Each structure stands twice: as C-alpha cells, then as structure tokens.
Amino acid sequence: MIALEFSTFLGRFHPLFVHLPIGFLLLAILLEWYQAITKKKRKSRLIAFAWLLGAVSAFAAALCGWFLGESGSYQDDSLFVHRWLGIALVVVAFIGWRIKYKSDNFSNVVHNGINIVLLLMLTIEGHKGGNLTHGENYLVEYAPAPIQNMLGVVQREEKLPQLSSPDSVTVYADMIHPILETKCISCHSDEVQRGGLNLATPELLQEGGENGPVVEASQPTESELFRRVTLPQKNTKYMPPKGEPMTYDEIKVMEWWIAQGAPFDKKLSDLEIPNTIKPTILRLYGLDTEPKPWYETVQLAPLDSTQIENLRSVGFSVRTLGGKNPLLDVKYSNTDLTKEQLMELDKVKEHITWLSLASSNVEDEWLSIVGNFENLTRLQLEKTDITDKGVGMLSNLSHIETLNLYGTKVTDSCLADLEKMEGLKRVYLWRTGVSPEDAKKLQEEKAELQVIGGKT
Asked: Cytochrome c domain spans which residues (predicted)?
C-alpha cells in the first residue's frame, strides 16, 4: 500500500514535467531554423543545450507518467500507445541531442530529418495525452455544429430518459443502466474492461470484475459499485476517475436499487418506493410515483362526439372527467332502464370509469354487462333492488375502488364477492342485510378496505 501511494505521489508530477520538453525542444528547433534562415555558419551551442534539457525533462515526464498510468484511472488501449510513444520520444530526443552536439558530423538532411520526426512525435503524443485526460472529442467538443458534422463527431446524449408510468418501467433497463451508460461504460464495456469489469449487459455486471462481484443484493454498503462512487474524489479508487461524477440523486437511486435486491427484470411498480426516494425519481426521470387512481393511469383515445351523443339519446347523462382524460362519468336515475340501454354502454365499456344507476330499476342479471367494464372505478347502486346475486356479477371488476350498495337487498352472502374485488377501497352498506359483525370482520381481513355501515 505504501509503495502504491508513493508511486501515485510521483505520478502526480507528470503534468508538471510534461510541458517542459515541448518548450525546450520547440525552442531548439525554432532557434536552429532561425539561424539557417539568417545564414549563420555555425550553430549556436544553445541548440544542443536546449535539446539536452528537452530530453532530460521528457525522461522525467515519461517516468512520472508511467507511475500515473498505474493508478488505474486510464483506459488500457490508449494508455499503452501514449506510454510507449513517450518512451520513444525520450530516445529520439537524446539521439537528437547527440546529433546537435556533434553538429559538424551530420548533414543538413539528418538535422532537418530529426527535427521533423520529433515535431511529429510531439504532436501525436500531445494529442494522445489530451485524449486520455479530456476525452477523444476534446478538440472539437465546442466546435460549431457544421464542423462537428464534417468531422463525424457523435454527440452522446447525457440526459437520463424521462419516464411516464411506473407499470411500464423496468427498473434496471430504464433507470439504472442509463446511469451506468453515461458515467461508467466508457471504462467498463465490450471494448474496454478496466479491472476486468464489463457493465454492458446485466449478465456481465453480475459476473463482476477481477476481484469478484461488484453488487451485493440488498447490501449497498457492501457493494463495490456503490462504494467506489461514494469515495472521496481525491481517492485513487474513486469512480469515475474522469468526466462528470455521479450526482447525489443518481447515487441515491443506485443505493435504493441495490437495497431492493438489485433486480434486473422487475417493474418499478413491483418494488417498494420509500417516500424519501420519490422526489429523487421525479427529479431524475420526471416520473411521479405517488399512487394515482386507476382512471388517471388509463391511456385511451377519446370517443368521438357521435358516440357520446348516442348515449345521451338513449337516456344517459354523460360527461368526460375533464382535461385530457378521455374516460366518462355516466348516470341514469329513472325507473325505466332496460337491458338494451345497458348494452349501448357495453359498446364503449373501456371508456366508462364512473357509473351511477342509483334509484333505477336495474336488475341483478343486467349487472353481468357492467361486470365487463374493465376500467370502472366507481359504481353507485344505492336505493335499487340489487341482491347478492347482482354483486356476484361484479366480482371480476379488478379496478373498482368505490361501490355504493346503500339501501339495497344484499346480505352477508355478498361479502365473499366483495373480498374478490382487488382494488376495492370503500363500500357503503347502510340499510342492507349485512350484519355489523360481518362487515367489521371483512374490514379486518382487508385492511385497505373501508366498510361503511351495515344492517341498522
């Protein structure tokens, strides 16, 4: 550990030395060419001295750069070329110094040849170093768009995706992988695997790197992936070593995902979302995870006006919920309702979310039609002659939230069917044949259900 820290300490001097050889060697070459233009017969000794300073400082820069490369902060392929080109430049610089020191022993072709070779090497080596430090596009990153297009520069989108519905969001694919893609993939991909780690696919992520798994399910603090992104940025093991670090929100989402067991195939709606993480998800992905009534989550094309007018023409009161919501609130309260009229509702059943047949002459058998209204969330049957048989017709309404049976003829026998309604949150049973004791028992068995009233 001490040796590693000392080598890292020496490596940090690379930026200090790396510009010295550029200055000394350029000065030497320019001075030599100036003397050639002014037709000086004898080369100045300053030329050879500048070459010597350039060679020595190039050696110091290469040595420190070698140690800096051992820190693990750079991609292996690019680092390999930069390292060995730097060493070759040191050799060429010392050869150049020898030629300049014994200038009379070499022709102008040799002198100019070594100058041109060194200038080319300096240019390429400087560009390679810039790529390592700032990224491959650092020269053209802020160039005008036409120039970028001409050079074929591909701009990678750094923004995280904006999501719409928790039910359609796969947590890893839609939330976690985009973070890894923008902050980690450049060093852990199919092309580059720093530390033997490839994050390109869920399977490769689970394999881990040279030191084993990087994610411990349900244990964020024991997961190497989480530990590395939360280290102090000055730490040599901090990730990512360059570029934009993970934001606080991105780290919190990563921590939450690991705490949930680091699932790769689960939907957002399948996981527990603590109140502390909901604002974070909203900021990052524009996704509101607060529970919403079913009718706010349904996405349908609105009915055309002729369909709505048809319902009104057969006696129904119809209105939309307002805004961009295409679902309907339908009412019928007269005592001349027929099964044929309900069949008209069946034609648009996907769009009906609130239905009131209160005080009507609706019959048990007719409710088999209503039982197919898949987006129905509120049904009012108060003050009708509906019995337990009619409630049985409704047991498949999985999204029904409110059911009003006030003043109907239902009894304790309907409670089993009420229990089957998964989304039911509130049921009114005043002035029915349901006993208070059994009503209380139903509420105890379904903690999320509010049972209001019973036999009085």
From this structure: 171-262
What is the pTM (predicted TM-score) of this model?
A: 0.53
Residues 370 and 400 sit within 8 Å (Cβ to Cβ): no
The SS3 assignment for 21 reads: helix
Sorted by sequence, the CB contacts under 8 Å of residue 103 that are 6+ apart come out as 43, 47, 48, 111
Residue 94: burial class (beta carbons within 10 Å; 0-12, 13-18, 19+): middle
Q: How far is CA 173 from the centre of its chain?
A: 8
8 Å CB contact between 7 and 65: no
Give the pLDDT score at 136.
Answer: 67
CB atoms within 10 A of CB 190: 11
- 146-200 pLDDT tens trace: 877 776 665 555 578 898 888 889 999 999 999 999 999 878 888 777 788 999 9
The angle formed by the CA atoms of residues 364, 370 and 375, to the nearest 5 degrees, is 150
What local confidence, expressed as pLDDT, does residue 155 receive? 55
What's the CATH architecture for 297-452?
Alpha-Beta Horseshoe (3.80)
3-state secondary structure of 79: helix
DSSP 252-264: HHHHHHHHTT--S
212 burial type by CB count under 10 A (0-12 exposed, 13-18 middle, 19+ buried): exposed
Residue type at position 36: A
Q: What Cα–Cα distance (Å) separates residue 348 from each residue in 6, 334, 354, 367? A: 76, 21, 13, 16
Query: Angle formed by the axes of helices 248-259 and 278-285, to 10°?
Result: 120
What tokens appear for 17 in the block?
Answer: 């030395």
Half-sphere exposure of 406 (CA within 13 A, CB side): 14
Of 107, 109, 106, 94, the C-alpha closest to 48 is 94
Which residues of the chain carry a pLDDT beneath 70?
1-5, 71-77, 133-138, 140-142, 151-158, 454-456
Length of the chain: 456
**Distance (Å, whole) CA 243 – CA 65:** 19
The encoded tokens of residue 394 equal: 């409704």
Q: From the DSSP assignment, how many helices (H) and strands (E) are in the chain? A: 19, 7
b (16+ CB within 10 A) / e for 404-425: bbbbbbbbbebbebbeebebbe
* Closest alpha carbon to 379 in 93, 387, 450, 371: 371
DSSP assigned state of 35: H
